[in-house]
Amino acid sequence: ADKRKIKRKKKKIYDQDVLVALKEIWKISDYICSKRLAPFLSEIIPVLEKWGEIKLDAKVREKLFKISAATIDRLLSDTRKRYRIKGRSTTRPRTLLKKSIPIRTFADWDEKVPGFFEVDLVSHDGGATKGDFNQSLNFTDISTGWEEMVAVKNKAQVWVFAGIKNIKERLPFSMLGLDSDNGAEFINAHLIRYCEEHKITFTRSRPYRKNDSCFVEQKNWSVIRRAVGYGRYDTDKELSILNELYGYLRLYVNFFQPVRKLIKKE
């Protein structure tokens, strides 16, 4: 009699129970990428279990402790598609005092100590740029990934400058360098003089080259947009709410989220 090979269906290692638990932990971890989530699972799962946030079967827990980033990507692929949104940028190039400020590109960053920041503004115009609206001033430290943000009334130099001083005063380390885009809210004599007085290296990125500010650009979305979305905020009350939120958000991001640093650009 002919003996035909019977193909047996391979049993899934990471079954539905694992997927359900993984989704819940991923949401609790603020939807972080798989390469950050995979090594974080063994640390966060015991904490979540201790405080009753999740209850895991022993086998599910063991599988989650061993799961790879690639497998997480595969399991969460369909779920992630439902969360994707596209952003808008309102940054326009400026020319004021550009020649007095050196250009810094992505390849120039090689800072080994904390204190060198990329800085950017995130607009809260709700899709209509007419009139004044609140802005979020976003700081990202190149060495550590430390994140600071403060909401300002609009992008006028006076508010942006006040926001920069506010952030400088609450940093856990000294501000040594500042790199901005070419907007007039940054490229002005007032800020240049302030940086000179406080021995802060001030540089600027090239116009239309987002990769020059890739560290802060990434945090614009992963931290600020994900927290407050794309709505229009243009009142004093909304400004106050944003800053109250950021007071908690900066602590959450800096002390309760794992950091994955960009090491090369392809």
Please characterize this protein's 3D structure.
With 266 residues, the chain is of the alpha/beta class. The protein folds into two domains: 16-81, no CATH class; 98-256, Nucleotidyltransferase, domain 5, CATH 3.30.420.10. Helices cover 42% and strands 11% of the residues. The protein has eight helices and five strands, in the order ααααβββαβαβαα. A five-stranded mixed beta sheet has the order 3-2-1-4-5, with helices on both faces.
- Which of globular, elongated, flat, extended, rod-shaped describes the shape? elongated
- Report how far apart the termini are: 58 Å
Question: How many separate structural domains?
Answer: 2
Question: Poorly predicted ranges (pLDDT <50, ≥5 residues)?
Answer: 91-103
For the biggest sheet, the summary is: 5 strands, mixed
As a whole number of angstroms, the C-alpha radius of gyration is 22 Å
Task: Report strand order across the widest sheet.
Answer: 3-2-1-4-5
What is the CATH first-level class name of the largest domain? Alpha Beta
Task: Assign a percent range to the helix content.
Answer: 40-55%
The CATH topology of the largest domain is Nucleotidyltransferase, domain 5
Separate helix tally: 8
Order of helices and strands: HHHHEEEHEHEHH
Instruction: Write the CATH homologous superfamily of the largest domain.
Output: Ribonuclease H-like superfamily/Ribonuclease H
Counted beta strands: 5
Secondary structure category: alpha/beta
CATH architecture of the largest domain: 2-Layer Sandwich
Estimated share of beta-strand residues: 5-15%
State mean pLDDT (0 to 100 scale): 83
Domain Integrase catalytic: 110-266
InterPro entries: Integrase_cat-core (IPR001584), RNaseH-like_sf (IPR012337), RNaseH_sf (IPR036397)
Protein name: Integrase catalytic domain-containing protein
Organism: marine sediment metagenome
